[in-house]
């Protein structure tokens, strides 16, 4: 009999992806029923160059921080085998995800990419100026979200962890209980 932990069960339940479309600052991305991807819009950094992607189950699109940064975008695709594809602007290494495996969910923030692994741990690549990529100690995570300069992780017990910039109190989630979905 296969053993599945509570965290793995929660991750697998959420793996039935709702992330079949994504919107970047000036581009749109969608997963087709056959696992291929379509993208339209500004392609200044190659963020729409996804025609060769196959077996994709979810997509995410990186956002911008300021209006003056428009066009600095990247696109992330989660493959059915748990690996990740990336295209677009990569100044901070946010597209350096080719070595990732066992990924069940992805999120794209400003200049970074976040991946949730099947064992409930989290990986991140890209800009870490506000320590928003400091997620290596997280465990029992079932969902991730990436904001402008912070990252959220929903734990299997309904609590939330955060990393990154807290200028507006966006990381003050330690008292949250019973949360079912995280968004940033």
Description:
This protein has one helix at 6-15; strands at 21-23, 27-31, 37-41, 56-61, 74-79, 84-88, 103-109, 112-117, 122-126, 141-146, 150-155, 160-164. The protein is mostly beta strands and 184 residues long. It has one domain (6-164): Regulator of chromosome condensation 1/beta-lactamase-inhibitor protein II (Methylamine Dehydrogenase, Chain H, 7 Propeller), CATH 2.130.10. The termini are far apart.
Mind telling me the CATH class?
A: Mainly Beta
CATH-assigned fold name:
Methylamine Dehydrogenase, Chain H
**Overall mean pLDDT:** 87
Q: Count the helices. How many?
A: 1
The biggest beta sheet reads: 3 strands, antiparallel
Number of domains: 1
Structural class: mainly beta
Helix content: under 10%
| Global Rg | 16 Å
Q: Strand sequence of the main sheet, in spatial order?
A: 1-2-3
Which band does the percent of strand residues land in? 35-45%
The helix-strand sequence is HEEEEEEEEEEEE
Gross morphology: globular
CATH architecture term: 7 Propeller
The overall strand count is 12
Classified in CATH, the superfamily is Regulator of chromosome condensation 1/beta-lactamase-inhibitor protein II
Q: Unreliable stretches, pLDDT < 50, 5 or more residues?
A: 6-16
GO cellular component, one term: cytoplasm
GO molecular function: guanyl-nucleotide exchange factor activity
Organism: Cohnella fermenti
Protein name: RCC1 repeat protein
């Amino acid at each position: 009999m296969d053993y599945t932990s509570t965290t793995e069960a929660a991750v697998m339940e959420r793996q039935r992806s709702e992330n079949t479309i994504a919107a970047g600052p000036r581009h749109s991305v969608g997963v087709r029923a056959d696992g291929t991807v379509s993208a339209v819009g500004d392609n200044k950094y190659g963020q729409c160059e996804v025609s060769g992607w196959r077996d994709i189950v979810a997509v995410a699109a990186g956002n911008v921080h300021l209006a003056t940064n428009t066009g600095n975008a990247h696109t992330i695709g989660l493959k059915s085998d748990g690996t990740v594809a990336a295209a677009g602007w990569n100044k901070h290494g946010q597209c350096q995800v080719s070595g990732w495996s066992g990924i069940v969910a992805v999120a794209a923030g400003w200049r970074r990419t976040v991946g949730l692994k099947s064992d409930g741990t989290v990986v991140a690549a890209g800009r870490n100026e506000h320590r928003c990529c400091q997620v290596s100690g997280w465990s029992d995570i079932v969902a991730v979200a990436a904001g402008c300069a912070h990252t959220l992780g929903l734990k299997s017990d309904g609590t939330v962890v955060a990393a990154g910039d807290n200028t507006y109190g966006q990381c003050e989630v330690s008292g949250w209980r019973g949360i079912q979905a995280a968004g940033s």
